[in-house]
Design goal:
It contains ten helices and 16 strands. By secondary structure, it is of the alpha/beta class. The protein folds into two domains: 9-358, TIM Barrel (Alpha-Beta Barrel); 361-439, Golgi alpha-mannosidase II (Immunoglobulin-like), CATH 2.60.40. Strands 5-4-3-2-1-8-7-6 form an eight-stranded parallel β-sheet, with helices on both faces. Strands 9-10-11-16-13 form a five-stranded antiparallel β-sheet. Strand 7 (282-287), helix 9 (304-316) and strand 8 (319-325) form a beta-alpha-beta unit. Helix 5 crosses helix 10, helix 7 runs parallel beside helix 8 (227-237) and helix 9 (304-316) packs across helix 10 (335-351). The longest helix is centred in the middle third of the chain and has 17 residues, at 184-200. The protein is globular, with a radius of gyration of 23 Å.
Length: 441
């Protein structure tokens, strides 16, 4: 699996732990009843689509091209002059996501390059005022999501590689900024202005997804992002809006869900998410291929089997999966991403009941697979074709065991310690063989 972020970030991401305020020093955040209901809805959705799209797609080298290509913004920003995604169709996108079984989308409103993909009065550097396209794609997506019943989330970068008032951090040092005009108070007001627009001009925005907090990690004295203040402002505008931050540290007061980059909660195989798993709703994000933004040469797409199994394993951890696609500069979704969406959708039409609205199962991960649970129904997801029997460590008494799809009864024996031994039929190389175990109350 490719890692998108530069390897040098791995050296300073662990330092983020140093800026985490002790719980006693953080202001107390009490979510409203409406916010708590939205959290439950978010957890029940389990599957969302992430979209990294901006003028960087013109270069077809990923969303970090301004940084990785060591470009001056005076050259990079010329991509806005020819950004004209003539094939963009918000309804077609959203219908594809819905047919794949996704319940929500999260799109980059503004990435680290500072370009806004929406009409904003806070900066002329936006898709309506700075491109010949002159259409607000976020407004079109908001309308399509409302029409199709999908929830809308916005990604928003806390850092900016081109604005003079943003204090230069660990990235974006070569883009042509003078560097002596930093004014975080002014930049903070700029962010507030844009966030107000995002939360008031686009209907029912369910969540904001922040990124870039790591740009000042490890600085002494510690950089003050004023996040609790920003979170209070957001909740004053929309109390039910969920807030998450890809900061790779323990949750900050005011956040409503916890995210994990390229990793299942608690695993940290990619090296970005070593923070402890909290009590908040969980979401992991992963790419379909290697990059987040569109890269023409990146055809290393994960298989439908791998992506479905990742979704199942996420649900078994009590986590959502936010699966990323990088649209082309012409507004189309890559052909391979559409193929993968169709495959995931076929599986979800059959087995979505074992994913949506479930919690982590009472049986932890086993060699044969994982479990999800909905009330007294325990769903065993057997992702190995080898065993003819599976041993399920249980404590509760069992009322019945059936094959999920057909309802056919399966032979089983519950041992004295509660462990359940289930005999399985012969089966091929399935993505996921699902068994329903009904527990006694």
């Amino acid at each position: 699996m490719k890692r998108l972020f530069p390897r040098v970030l791995l050296l300073f991401l662990p330092c983020c732990m140093a800026i985490s305020l002790p719980l006693a020093a953080q202001p107390i955040y009490e979510p409203t009843p409406e916010n708590m209901e939205v959290r439950k809805e978010f957890e029940a959705d389990r599957f969302g689509i992430f979209l990294h799209w901006g003028i960087y797609s013109e270069y077809a080298q990923g969303e970090w091209y301004l940084e990785f290509g060591k470009l001056r913004n005076s050259e990079y920003s010329k991509a806005a002059d020819c950004f004209y995604p003539v094939r963009f169709d918000a309804r077609r996108w959203v219908r594809s996501f819905k047919e794949a079984g996704a319940r929500y989308i999260c799109i980059t409103a503004r990435h680290h390059d500072g370009f806004s993909m929406f009409k904003t009065s806070a900066s002329p550097y936006n898709i309506v005022d700075a491109t010949p396209f002159r259409r607000d794609v976020l407004a079109e997506l908001a309308a399509a999501c409302k029409e199709e019943g999908l929830k809308l989330h916005f990604y928003y970068s806390l850092l900016d590689w081109v604005r003079e008032d943003y204090p230069i951090g660990k990235s974006g040092r070569h883009t042509g900024r003078v560097g002596n005009k930093a004014d975080y108070n002014a930049y903070f007001d700029f962010m507030k202005s844009q966030i107000r627009e995002l939360l008031t001009n686009y209907g029912d925005v369910r969540a904001l997804w922040f990124d870039g907090y790591w740009d000042h990690a490890g600085e002494q004295p510690a950089f003050d992002w004023r996040m609790p203040e920003l979170y209070r402002y957001i909740h004053s505008l929309r109390p039910a809006c969920l807030i998450g931050n890809n900061h790779h540290i323990s949750p900050i007061s005011g956040e409503d869900f916890q995210m994990f980059e390229r990793d299942l909660p608690g695993e940290n195989k990619a090296g970005f998410s070593g923070q402890a798993v909290s009590h908040l709703p969980l979401e992991m994000c992963q790419t379909m291929n290697g990059m987040w933004g569109y890269k023409v040469a990146d055809l290393n797409y994960k298989s439908v089997k791998d992506m479905v199994r990742l979704l199942v394993r996420a649900a078994a951890k009590g986590s959502n999966l936010l699966l990323n696609i990088g649209p082309r500069p012409n507004g189309e979704l890559p052909d391979l991403s559409i193929d993968r969406l169709k495959g995931i959708g076929q599986w979800m039409k059959l087995y979505g009941e074992t994913i949506y609205g479930t919690q982590a199962g009472c049986v932890g991960a086993q060699e044969w697979g994982v479990s999800t649970q909905k009330g007294m129904q325990l769903f065993l997801h057997v992702m190995s074709s080898e065993p003819r029997q599976v041993l399920v460590p249980l404590k509760q008494k069992v009322k019945g065991v059936v094959e999920f799809l057909s309802g056919r009864k399966l032979p089983y024996k519950q041992q004295k310690d509660g462990s359940l031994l289930i005999t399985l039929p012969e089966r091929g190389d399935e993505i996921d063989y699902v068994i329903t175990v009904t527990l006694k109350k």
